[in-house]
Write a structure and sequence with these properties.
flat
Length: about 90
């Protein structure tokens, strides 16, 4: 990631990868919406960005030494928010 700022080819590749991840999440959220698994008024594009950001944050925190239970709890809370669950 540090090379992104200095290298246009790497920046382009990373940007394309991020767009692909967001698009895959968005497609899955739209499918969930169609199946009634996600609220009709949910915004699949916004949820995709949130899911992607959460995934990247968890990866960074894991590399920084966060423990697995902490990471799992973070993922669980993100899923609750994304899916509109209240526990």
């Amino acid at each position: 990631m540090t090379e992104v700022a200095e290298d246009a080819a790497i920046r382009s590749s990373v940007a394309a990868g991020l767009r692909m991840i967001d698009a895959d999440f968005e497609a899955r959220f739209r499918l969930a919406q169609d199946k009634g698994e996600l609220k009709r008024d949910a915004d699949p594009a916004a949820l995709a960005i949130l899911a992607s950001a959460t995934m990247h944050t968890i990866a960074i925190r894991a590399r920084a030494g966060a423990r697995r239970p902490e990471l799992r709890e973070m993922a669980r809370k993100a899923v609750d928010v994304i899916c509109g669950c209240r526990r």
